[in-house]
Structure formats: structure tokens, C-alpha cells
Amino acid sequence: MVEPSRLAEDPQLLLLHAAGLGRASWDAVVERIPGFARTLAIDLPGHGGVPGLAYGHDVVPRLAEYVAERIAVLGLRRPHVVGHSLGGVIALELARRVPVAAVTALCSIGFRAACHAYLCVVRTHAILRITAAVGPRARGRLLARGCVRRFVMGNVSARPVALRAEVVAADVTSMITNDVSTLCRYAGRYSFRATEIDDTTPVNLVWADQDRVVPMRDAVRARQVLPRAQHFVIPGSGHFVVRDDPEGAAAVIHACHAQLLWERQADIRRGARGNVNPLPGN
Question: What is the pTM of this model?
Fold first, then answer.
């Protein structure tokens, strides 16, 4: 398929990260999206120096309201919102509040009544508490060992040994220093309901077939809640799909955005044809 032309008014990609990570977690994905530069990743509250919230059971809607405010401040017009894990369900909640061009949610939580993510996160937090007791330099040396990366990241990655030690060390430090524990205590129990999402808003749900936090069976409920959504599967990846397979994540995001641009341009062409007045005598 020929690459659709890009216009200045084409929707920008707004990227929302997973709990405990940060906007830098998208770097490896963005650099692999073919020919696309109009991206903006932001830090959510409790990450990257952004003050946290008074967390409660309404944390996901409140985070969506925060992102809606940021969209207004940044002057974005109907962005294509892409979210990972917690960022995925925030993107879906955001579509209930403000106009967006599309939503693409990778390994999104929120599709189980009692979210399996919570149990997996509890195990990960127990490991992080142990890891936090070790200083940064010693932690870096330990994470250089494949067996330690498997122990620390095995719940969220299908390829922990293959991950670069410095990347794992940065992610572990991020999860230790950010609001991940308090945030996930509430967000992990959240159940998404699709009321008020415009039927014309494209929704793309992306799953990882080795995900232990958001298992593939969550797609069954997702199809009931969002029957119009498109589904994609990234094979061989765990929950941290942006780490396990940044190429696969970039390919899916690119495909979803290219489809959005094609549909947008088709609408423009149809509108242009509809505005052409017939010549006199025809």
C-alpha cells in the first residue's frame, strides 16, 4: 500500500505510557515508526517529576481528565491517542471526554471485572521492594545477570534475558521512584465501560500473546464492551510490549495510523466531489 500523504492538519500521535514507566519508554517504538515524526509523549501524574494525584477508585477517570487538560494546554486538535497498559485504558476513557481521531490501546488493563493485572502487579511490587533495598550501582551490576533480569522482569516481559541490562535498570529505577504501587492498587481493579464513546471513533486493541498481566482471554470481554474495535496480536511478547518487541508495536501503530489517514483523505475526496457544481447544460 502506498504511503498516504501527510498534511499539517493530520492527527498527531499522543503517547501515554504504562504505570511505573515514563514517556521515554516510547523512544524505541517511535524511532521505528516508518516515516512518522509527529509524535508527542507525555508523563502522567506521579511520573517524571509530574506531581501525583490523591489516588482513589476514580484514578483512571481522573488521569483521563488530566490528559484532556494537557491536550487543551498543548493545543492538540483531535489527536490519535496511543496508550500502553494503564495508558491504554486512559486513552479509552479520554475518548469519552474529548474528541479524538482514534484510540490505539496496547495491552490495556480494564477488561476484567476483577482485573488479573492486580495480582501480577502485587508480585512485581514485592520484587521491586527487594530490589529497592539495593543501591543503584549494585542494582545495575545485579541486573547485568540474565537470571536476575528473569527474576525481576519475568512477570512483565516474555524476554527478560534478551533485554539490555541498562534498559532494565532504568525501568526498575523508574518503577521504584514513581507512584506505581499506589497507582496500581486502584487502577488494577478498574473495569472499563464503553458508554459515551462515539461510534465513529476508531478503536484498535492490541494484545501480546505472552502477556501475564493482561492475558489474551481479556479480549473476550473487550469484544463485548467494544464490538466495533479492531483487534491485533503481537506474538511472542509480554506485557511490556514496548520493550519486548518495539518493532512489532511500531508496525501496529503505523498500520492503525495509516488506515486513519487513508480514511480521512477518502472523506476529503468524497467531500470535494460532493461540492463540485455541474456545468450548465449538463
Answer: 0.86
